[in-house]
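Board work, copied verbatim: Arylsulfatase A
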Amino acid sequence: MVFNPKLIFHLILGIGLLLLQSCKPETKEITKPNIVLIVSDDQGWGDLGINGNPNVHTPNIDKLAENGVQFSRFYVNPVCSPTRAEILTGRYHPRGGVYSTSRGGERLDLDEKTIADIFQSNGYNTAAFGKWHNGSQPPYHPNNRGFEEYYGFASGHWGNYFSPMLEHNGEVTQGNGFIIDDLTDHAMEYMEKNTDQPFFVYLAYNTPHSPMQVPDVWWDKYKDAAIDTTHRYADKEKMDKTRAAYALCENLDWNVGRVVDKLDSLKLLENTIVIYMSDNGPNGWRWNDGLKGIKGSTDEGGVRSPFIMYWKEHLKPQIISQIASTIDILPSLMDMAGIINPFEKPLDGVSLKPLLTGSQEEWKARNVYSHWNGRVSVRNQNFILDSDNQLYDLKADPGQHQPIAQATSAAFTELSKAKEEWINSVLSELDRDRQEIFPVGYKDSKYTLLPARDGIPHGGIARSSIHPNSSFFTNWTSTTDSVTWDTDILTSGKYKATVYYTCKPSAVGATLKLKQGANEVSTPINEAHDSDYLAVEYDRSPRDESYEKDYKPLEIGVIQLDKGHHPITMKASEIKGPEFIEVRLLVLERID
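↓ predict structure ↓
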């Protein structure tokens, strides 16, 4: 046998490498977690069984809380759009220009980057379903703010919850069934189609916000229910509204259960962070654990929200008492997902991961601020200084029944200074006097929707409600009447114009005209469409919002729109009968 030193050397080297490889610890690829962020609308702290309400049945959300992390002191804003802006950005809503809930004041400034922008840039698929409420027209639309998929309605409250007019990626569509069930169906379908890549799903429900429309299956459980009337505001309570709110909360609970079950069936539950919260306090005087105030208030009852985070086998069940707020959601999710923010603007929130994982015993003291319509309150772990500069000890008096002496209080001095600094540094950024002009023809979007809520009626034309978000124009009786939209045309070109209308048979033969400067297009009204109010039989309590009708689309024609700040005007060049059409929506489709 011939001895070959070279062969022996390579043999020994190979065996050594194999041994080294076998000793190397196994590395497992870290999978980014999916995220499902569920936000209800006008559901107060007390509208869950887990928080002590004996009148409402919410077993699925309660179970999520019992098996996950609950924050007992989590704060949102007094109304919808500011809270949603802070969820999206991790920054105080005045920085993003949000000062109202309608007519453009709810729009999030375009130089703000959203949670969807950030997660999308880190390899996530992104989708939003439901109520947006931070800008309707592109580029304020969710499809232009990082969400690849959108199904819902972009303005504030909606007037019909049963197969309503909605939009899908900017195009008008018809809902299917009760709106919360429908939104959940679309979200589950999306998750099912995106199991091969991490997803961020923003499921923004719009109940128990009014109108209090409830399907029979949920209403029948509550319509005759005895309601606890021993709470703080029982003398102001409207019983049927409360019953409807609880029925809607149980429907929400059922849908949350469906989402969790879907994640489980897809074998995604162990790698999905599920969050459940509300956007502000309750929309009525009902049981709320004795907290002061309701929606619209900067007191505890107006801004303290349920906040539940569940991540199976990653977060142990616990109740966290440290104060936190909406601005903390984005930095916390980034931290937990191990992703970075590629954009420049600093976040106001802090990551809650150390609290969630128990990895930090010391937690830095902080303040949480609440603002709406010029009213500001500030709280720390023990005290609140309210919008009238009254100081309350929240440990001894969580219901804010009796203010404490201020002059000798170090807490009063500290919180007064913090409040003044926040007003001067943050609130001063808010421009409440900006001119609200509605963009048309954004380069990356085919459709622009101009609802009645963003239009201005002239002459005898009236809104169907003082609350504009789901309103339509009616009482159009003269050719001198008109509707205008104050628009900024971003792209010159031809646009197909479609109006969604109703009218009585006597209006047939009239002529509708659409104008922009010297450009115009017109069409005759050839078909009556006299719709009754929709789903009125499901109203369980009197509403303030407008009722909805079944609006019919009518193609007006193709109009040239010139770039620049030019209002669009809708007129009747001829009217037949006592009244012209009623107008809900103008759609402009850019023709390339």
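The CA atoms of residues 83 and 173 lie 27 Å apart.
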